């Protein structure tokens, strides 16, 4: 009951709460660090940095090192193996949050406490308030929210570890409020078979199509997956609706029971309507046609998810794409106070009450082109960041992360009251490397964004991409994998060699000075572009899910490190093209 009262107060006073938070950002950050040190300075990890016992901000910044997950992992492993969590933080551990492992290359175990969960929950409620404020009437309908679960695992000490959404979907706060806003019964969300879960969630969404006012998922990759699933299964979904019988292959007891309460009888009129929509040769705007009252699509579309923007805009047919918040397994960072911003223009306002933030200045060289980044100077507080400057975010939490490098590069775009607003660029990590050349995730994303513009006049869409450094021969080369489709259908486009070679050339021309110099000197071979058949990146997602990744948290790998993953895409290749040296050198001389 107390929790319900607290939630009601947040919703009633949400905008005032935001004003108070952002007007007092500096003071709240100071209080946050003081509280973290007050509670945790006596832990084994932190106490060694305060030999005099003086655990204040000055000694914290002077003595406590800036670290990565690998530096903290030995302590997390000790807790997982049975030692008390007080070696790292004072509060009792609830469980571990398991990251997807697809962006950084490894799964991480991040501790969560009751208080860190409360801060995350608070963050979600504020996001919901801000988003709904921009759209009239979302409280009057439901959300088709595509959420999925993964099996929980236990560490040797018996502590549960799972993806955040699996943990959150089992909490009372989620389940008690679920029926009020979500079309998907909890049983379909908790189903551990992703295929059965997706089928049942889409089926319930179609059965309640006149109530759906928003479509949502955590990441845009899930919505891209859902549209592909809909293309493959709309006939079977229509058959279920027409006959009133659930497909025999849905055998999960929870799904069967939940669907028996929703799929209560034949509805041939609805089935005919959905069939008519899905039989259209072009699926442009299909989301709006299937759910006519939908007001917005809510999903994180920034960073590595930006590759799905054009796809969602195509299927959405003008429905606003809202990228609501900036979160990670480690912490909640900020929210988008301008939900109607174009996806590429989104900035996140940092909330000062979720963690203590520092920012490592990042040097960005070169006249606007994607360049190598490097950190420089000492970190600054949230109150001292500068407009237009680039930073890598460092976080300190109540749950055992101290001066922890998240790896994300941000740009300060403005301020809301006294709280800075950041544009999320990319992870700092280098994804491609040959010789002395290093290409970051941001470099690659910008280069591909430039190249795909060549395809648009021909009605060709780039729906997914990845890459790897091929050093099997000397000199080595960068290899790109692209999945393409025609705007009007799922047909594979006719691959014109000249156009594809021009795409290769534009990617190379968009890279930095070091790449161009090494390419010109013959130390790097021509970039190779491999086009794969429709659905190949779904197979890649299935591969990572089979290895433990969560479909809800899945981030498509910008660069492939796994030989098995490379084999999956190579086996689906339908064409390959190289950047002609003459074209590249011509572009280089013109630049």
UniProtKB/TrEMBL annotation:
Single GO molecular function: acid-amino acid ligase activity
UniProt-listed InterPro entries: GH3, GH3_C, GH3_M
One CC-aspect GO term: cytoplasm
Protein keywords: Coiled coil, Ligase
Coiled-coil stretches: 11-38
GH3 C-terminal domain segment(s): 442-563
Domain GH3 middle, residue spans: 348-427
One matching Pfam family: GH3_C
Family: Belongs to the IAA-amido conjugating enzyme family.
Designated name of the protein: Indole-3-acetic acid-amido synthetase GH3.17-like
Originating organism: Gossypium darwinii (Darwin's cotton)
């Amino acid at each position: 009951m107390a929790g319900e009262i607290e939630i009601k107060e947040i919703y009633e006073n949400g905008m005032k709460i935001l004003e108070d938070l952002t007007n007092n950002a500096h003071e709240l950050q100071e209080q946050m660090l003081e509280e973290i040190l007050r509670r945790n300075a006596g832990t084994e990890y932190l106490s060694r940095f305060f030999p005099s016992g003086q655990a204040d901000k000055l000694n914290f910044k002077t003595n406590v090192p800036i670290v990565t997950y690998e530096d903290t992992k030995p302590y997390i492993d000790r807790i997982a193996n049975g030692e008390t969590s007080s070696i790292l933080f004072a509060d009792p551990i609830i469980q571990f949050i398991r990251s997807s492992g697809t962006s950084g290359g490894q799964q991480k175990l991040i501790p969560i406490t009751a208080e860190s969960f409360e801060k995350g929950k608070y963050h979600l409620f504020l996001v919901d308030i801000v988003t709904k404020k921009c759209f009239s009437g979302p409280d009057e309908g439901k959300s088709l929210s595509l959420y999925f679960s993964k099996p929980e695992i236990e560490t040797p000490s018996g502590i549960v570890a799972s993806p955040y959404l699996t943990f959150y979907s089992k909490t009372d706060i989620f389940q008690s409020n679920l029926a009020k806003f979500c079309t998907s019964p909890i049983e379909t969300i908790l189903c551990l078979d992703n295929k059965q879960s997706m089928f049942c969630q889409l089926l319930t969404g179609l059965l309640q199509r006149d109530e759906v006012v928003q479509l949502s998922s955590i990441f845009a990759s899930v919505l891209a997956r859902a549209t592909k699933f809909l293309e493959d299964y709309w006939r079977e979904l229509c058959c279920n609706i027409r006959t009133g019988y659930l497909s025999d292959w849905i055998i999960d007891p929870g799904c069967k029971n939940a669907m028996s309460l929703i799929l209560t009888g034949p509805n041939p009129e609805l089935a005919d309507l959905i069939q008519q929509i899905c039989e259209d040769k072009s699926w442009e705007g299909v989301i709006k046609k299937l759910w006519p009252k939908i007001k917005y699509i809510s999903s994180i579309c920034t960073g590595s998810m930006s590759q799905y923007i054009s796809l969602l805009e195509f299927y959405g047919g003008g429905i606003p794409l809202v990228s609501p918040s900036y979160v990670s397994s480690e912490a909640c960072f900020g929210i988008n106070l301008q939900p109607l911003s174009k996806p590429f223009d989104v900035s996140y306002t940092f909330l000062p009450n979720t963690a203590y933030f520092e920012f490592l200045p990042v040097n960005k060289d070169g006249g606007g082109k994607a360049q190598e980044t490097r950190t420089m100077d000492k970190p600054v507080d949230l109150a001292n960041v500068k407009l237009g400057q680039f930073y890598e975010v460092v976080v300190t939490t109540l749950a055992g992360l101290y001066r922890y490098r998240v790896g994300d590069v941000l740009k300060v775009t403005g301020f809301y009251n006294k709280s800075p607003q950041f544009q999320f660029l990319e992870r700092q990590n280098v994804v491609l490397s040959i010789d002395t050349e290093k290409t970051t995730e941001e470099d690659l994303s910008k280069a591909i964004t430039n190249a795909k513009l060549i395809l648009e006049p021909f009605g060709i869409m780039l729906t997914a991409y990845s890459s790897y450094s091929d050093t099997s021969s000397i000199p080595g080369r960068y290899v790109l994998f692209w999945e393409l489709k025609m705007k009007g259908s799922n047909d594979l486009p006719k691959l014109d060699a000249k156009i594809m070679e021009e795409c290769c050339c534009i990617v190379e021309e968009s890279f930095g000075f070091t790449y161009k110099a090494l390419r010109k000197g013959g130390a790097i071979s021509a970039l190779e572009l491999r086009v794969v058949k429709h659905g190949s990146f779904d197979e890649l997602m299935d591969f990572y899910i089979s290895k433990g990744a969560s479909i809800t948290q899945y981030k498509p790998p910008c660069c492939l490190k796994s030989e098995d993953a490379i084999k999956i895409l190579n086996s689906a290749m339908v064409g390959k093209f190289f950047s002609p040296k003459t074209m590249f050198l011509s572009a280089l001389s013109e630049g």
